[in-house]
Amino acid sequence: MIWRTSTLPWVLLTWSQYTAAQQTWPSVTDELEDILFLTSGYRSRHFADGVTPCSASPGGVAGRNAAAEWIRTAFHDMAPGNAFQGVGGLDASLMFEADRGENIGSAFTTTLTTYAPFLSSRLSMADIISAGVYSATRSCGGPVIPVRGGRVDATAPGASGVPLPNDGTAVFTSRFNRMGYNRSEMIAFVACGHSLGGVHSSDFPDIVPAGTAPNDYATLDSTVAVFDNKIVTEYFAGTSKNPLIVGPSVKLKKNADTMVYTADGNATMKTLTNAATFSARCRDMFQKMIETVPAGVTLTDPVKPYEVKPYDVQLTLLDGGSQLAFTGEIRIRTTNRGTGSIGKVQLVYKNRTGATATTPIDTTYKGDASGFDDTFSFYSFSTKLPSDSSISSFNVLITNTPGASETQSNGGNGFKVDDTVIYQAPQSCQASGNLTVVAAVRSGTSSPTLRVVVKNPVAGVVVPSLSTTNIPMVTQSTVGAYQLYSASYSGSQAASFGVYSGSSSDNYKNASSLPSACSSLTAPSSTPIPTPTPSSAPFTFQGCYLDNGNPRALDWVGQADDGMTVEKCATFCSSFQLFGLEYGRECYCSNKLASYSTLMGLSDCNMACAGNSTQMCGSGSRLSLYKNNKYSPPVTPSISGYNYLGCYSEATNGRALTDTATTSDKMTVETCATFCGGSSYFGIEYSSECYCGSALQAGSTIQSSDDCNMVCGGNSTEFCGAGNRLNIY
Question: Which residues are in the WSC domain (predicted)?
């Protein structure tokens, strides 16, 4: 058991010290991290819902406080432990002890029932009970309790020994000493634990006679739904209505709080009149409670929120075997970044050989989440990779507004992706209690095993047990460089499963998300059909940009279409360097971005495209900006017999060139040169106009080359002037 006696002070680090070193992904505490920090919003785990707000009561029943019950559940689980013998402690043995006389009332059964759905092969009930202390305390405004993972659940009831109101000072002191608490720690712990909640008449009718308190529930201080030191200040002020200090308990000698508080002549209680001291001491006492565990249990470092955390990272072998789908989501901690500060999130990945890919993987903003002290934003990705090169790891490149970037590399290790064994979701299914799982295993790898985790009801216990079944998978067909295997499981409803081969695995899959019918995977044709060499991606997402409309951020040409998609806009703007989508249905093109247009938060572009609801097409005054990767910058071509003079204005009183002229929607520089047939000068204007002359007229002067920015109607790689501007030869 982890404990400290009074002769060896129990040392605690501050929360800020715990956050100095970042944990790496994946971690054995990933599930615990989720329920601690994702309390509301996108992907919320809803663990803390039962104690939010602090005044919440189980099932809405008046006269109960769930936060107090969650904290006392942890204490009643830990309290029978023996620190000197290394037996018991916080091990979830309360699951088997809830009907004991020392665990009177419905609070413990109710709390464990609330916790039961969160039990999994990745999260023990003992760790869940510890998380409950953090959530209940923090929801009520109390201190941040550092939480470690790694607790192991008991499989049978333990010893008894929870302190009772009639124990007396000597017995209280002895029992807390057995737990590893000295006298001062005992006093501080009881004061902290009694900052919330009260005493029920139904549980202790001699202490709280029926009808003497609202809802037959006598609170321990005047702020039952706030974690504060009123329990202390009201004690000294003589205004306390705590039934364990005043009332019938005094005559019955069950005024337990008075007995505890006066055990050292009120010395400890006097220090707790300071609110900051009370908060810090409660943090230490509660942390000590949840870290008192049986001998042989090794706890992890305190769990803290990741700066970047991947979710549902999944490879899937596609039909023909030449490509892998790569999908998932990325969570970015935004606590210290500010709302809307993220402009773009991309994955820079390495292939199977360790070579870095030249084109990063773009992401799409999905939503925001928050915890008691942190905020997060989520971004999804979906792409296809060649199966012969695949992926081995990725870093996350975050471009912040107004443009500074940072790379998150998972402690320098990269976020690892293993393509050795791949769970094939489309080919797997579950129907009528039968689970079928298909895996793709790269050639040369040993045959995989299906591992199924099942929750089993336990008689008289509200928390199920977990059992694991391993099933060898059998060979199916070969698809490309992968061998398909399958296995089936029949019996109790599977809670989760995974596929394993040697040191590789694709695990922690949710059985409830499977379809009722399995699909097939098509092998490549025996006679491969020749295909052209794949080109690079035709366009690349640049981020969400400001467009105030005057002028447009992309000011050359635009269109609106109720069937607008990213691809449709890309086609319309194929001759331009940049294109952008706005307000769901608008498409704009240009070769440069307006100087005022700056990178905004990715979440600002939140309108779905009118023609494809899975794509984002900006929003009001926000432009989803893309770069045309196949764009070739326009030039002023060389024309035999002529020298290019530059970009000129029209003359003061008319045209710069006045001999002959022609127009054509298919105009090119070469077409105009041919039309002018040896004239001393020719010039192209406004994309489609051609002018010839023997001299430049007065007032026609050279201008900035940027002014002649329109491409030729017949050749988008050439410049053909602009409004009142000519490219003169």
Answer: 538-629, 641-729
Same fold, 308-416 and 421-513: yes
Cis peptide upstream of residue 53 (ω within 30 degrees of 0): yes
Whether the per-residue pLDDT at 11 is higher than 60: the answer is: no
Which strands sit side by side in the sheet containing 364-370, from one edge to the other? Answer: 40-41, 364-370, 375-386, 323-333, 308-317
Largest CA distance in the chain: 121
**Distance from CA of residue 99 to its chain's centroid?**
39
For residue 329, list its beta bridge partners.
311, 380
According to CATH, what is the number of the domain 308-416? 2.60.40.2440
Mean pLDDT on 573-596: 90
The domain locations on the chain are 24-290, 308-416, 421-513, 539-628, 646-728
pLDDT band at 21 (very low <50, low <70, confident <90, very high): low
Number of Cβ within 10 Å of residue 325's Cβ equals: 16
Reported confidence tier of residue 7, pLDDT bands at 50, 70, 90: very low
Question: Which fold, 421-513?
Answer: Immunoglobulin-like (2.60.40)
Phi, then psi, of 256 in degrees rounded to 5: -60, -40
Q: How far apart are CA 362 and CA 156, in angstroms?
A: 51
Half-sphere exposure of 472 (CA within 13 A, CB side): 4
Residue 476 is inside which H or E element, if any?
Answer: strand 474-479
Q: What is the dihedral of CA 353, 359, 364, 365, to 10 degrees?
A: 90
Dihedral sign, CA of 503, 506, 510, 511? negative
- What is the arrangement of strands in the sheet containing 461-472, beginning at the earlier edge strand? 461-472, 449-458, 494-501, 504-510
Asked if 240 and 221 count as a contact pair (C-beta separation under 8 A), the reply is yes
DSSP letter string, 699-728: T--B--GGG--PEETTEEEEE--BTTEEEE
**pLDDT for the residue 524:** 65
- b/e burial code for range 216-231 (CB count within 10 A of at least 16 → b): bbbbbbebbbbbbbbb
Distance CA 477, CA 411 (A): 39
Both tokens of 487, joined, read 């296995």
Q: Which residues of 631-641 are buried (b: 16+ CB within 10 A; e: fewer)?
A: beebebbeeee
Q: What fold is seen in the domain 24-290? A: Peroxidase; domain 1 (1.10.520)
H/E element, 472: strand 461-472
Question: How many angstroms separate the CA atoms of 168 and 516, rounded?
Answer: 62
In whole angstroms, give the CA distance from residue 510 to residue 573: 43
Q: What is the pLDDT of residues 464-476, one digit of tens each?
A: 999 999 999 998 8
**Region for residue 592 given its phi and psi (left: phi exceeds 0; alpha: psi -120 to 50; beta: otherwise):** beta
Q: Is the pTM of this model over 0.85?
A: no
